[in-house]
Write a structure and sequence with these properties.
single chain, alpha/beta, Nucleotidyltransferase, domain 5, 5-stranded mixed beta sheet, two-stranded antiparallel sheet, about 10% strand, disordered C terminus
């Protein structure tokens, strides 16, 4: 009997076999084995393999009306780009924090504004999924371990657990491009663990005295007193100059384990969001580049990131077998966190809160982009400075924008910046 005939016998037998009683099953099985030549156990297996599959029911897709139209999602996408591509949980807080300026900029109705505030982070993720592909890049550092004072500076590898400001992590970000020879620009980055406040300065090279001078300048502008710092093992930090400064100011000084970036996870994250993501990986090695970067770091970018950009903090890590779940607190701006903390300079914090009410985040973002364009024109390409395109009176343009923010007119750029920032710097 050929294979096709045996299959026909199986199709004619399996249903009758399953419906029969035990005695009848024995007789049917004997007949089946004699007809097909199968062994008894194999015949039972062949009959058991056949199933009666009913026709699948047609799937009825549930129709759901779209709650958030393309207009709302377009506004969210534009705000996401203006805010520097934040995480959806942070973006939802930004939508509420920036609401007065969003209403003016996009002319939303009350119904559209209600929808904008109602959208969930998961809906934002789905809407922006196509835009997020291809935006990740790796961060490379050029830190070399120092050899001085290692036996006097203790190692700190556990995470900070503080409720007051003043405990800082610090690091440098190199702007060497593909050529690490010679002298080039480094960005000194500080972040406060408790409030997530960030300060940045650019330095040509990372000499000990230059880094110390930048650290002193950043310390004077903080709205709180520094209590302790934690750095990596680079020679720009592990040296007698910074060590004596910390001893004179009674500042605690610890270092991470060599080649363990996770020990400084907070500052490594800020290196990306506040420096590398904006400046990029190109080479900068001129005093003009340092001045252009510090003009951005010390003014608009500082206010934009600390006053208008909320961030989240990891509360705990829940382990269930091999799965780890991270629990975060509610997104808040560094300024809002400082306002709720003890041990801050209340005068400076109050001035910052008043300044935020006068500033426009969209205008600040426009100035940041304008200054970044000036910085990018100073980068080195293939060992040569890229030719700068002529810019017609850039300072006057920035002054006009700042005039709309602070509400003044016909004020020189230097005086305008001092008027806006003196209250913050001097309390």
């Amino acid at each position: 009997m050929d294979l096709q005939s045996r299959r026909s016998v199986v199709d004619a037998t399996w249903k009758r076999y399953r419906q029969a009683c035990k005695t009848a099953k024995t007789r049917i099985l004997n007949e089946f084995c004699e007809t097909t030549g199968y062994a008894r156990k194999y015949a039972i297996a062949r009959i058991g393999q056949v199933e009666e599959c009913p026709k699948p029911k047609p799937r009825v897709r549930r129709h759901r009306n779209r709650l958030y139209g393309p207009g709302i999602m377009t506004v969210i996408e534009k705000i996401w780009e203006e805010a520097g591509y934040p995480w959806s949980v942070r973006l939802k807080v930004i939508l509420a924090l920036w609401r007065p300026w969003i209403r003016k900029r996009y002319g939303l109705t009350s119904a559209q504004e209600a929808l904008l505030l109602r959208v969930s982070p998961r809906t934002i993720d789905r809407a922006l999924a196509g835009k997020k592909r291809g935006m990740r890049r790796r961060l490379y550092g050029r830190t070399k371990p120092g050899t001085l004072l290692r036996h006097r500076i203790p190692i700190k590898c556990e995470h900070w657990d503080v409720k007051t400001p003043g405990f800082l992590e610090m690091d440098t970000v190199s702007h060497s491009g593909e050529n690490a020879s010679g002298t080039f620009v480094f960005s000194l980055n500080l972040t406060d663990i408790g409030s997530t406040w960030v300060e940045t300065r650019a330095v040509l090279g990372k000499g000990e005295t230059g880094i110390l001078e930048a650290f002193r300048e950043l310390s004077d502008g903080l709205p709180f007193t520094i209590k302790a710092i934690d750095a990596d093992n680079g020679g720009e930090f592990i040296n007698h100059h910074l060590w004596r400064h910390c001893q004179e100011r009674q500042i605690g000084f610890t270092r991470s384990r060599p080649y363990k970036k996770d020990d400084n996870a907070h500052i490594e994250q800020k290196n990306w969001t506040h420096v590398r993501k904006l400046i990029g990986w190109d080479r900068y090695d001129t005093p003009e580049a340092v001045r252009a970067m510090n003009d951005l770091f010390a003014h608009e970018l500082r206010l934009y990131m600390n006053l208008f950009q909320p961030s989240v903090k990891l509360i705990r890590l829940v382990r269930q077998g091999s799965r780890k779940t991270r629990r975060y607190d509610s997104p808040q701006t560094p300024l809002d966190r400082l306002a709720q903390m003890p041990g801050v300079d209340r005068a400076k914090v109050e001035n910052l809160l008043e300044l935020r009410a006068q500033l426009n985040p969209f205008e600040l973002a426009a100035i940041v982009r304008h200054k970044l364009d000036r910085i990018w024109r100073l980068r080195q390409v293939n060992g040569k400075s890229k030719a700068a395109k002529p810019i017609d009176h850039p300072e006057e343009e920035i002054a006009r924008i700042l005039s709309r923010i602070v509400g003044t007119k016909s004020v020189p750029p230097e005086n305008l910046r001092n008027a806006a920032l003196a209250r913050v710097s001097h309390g």
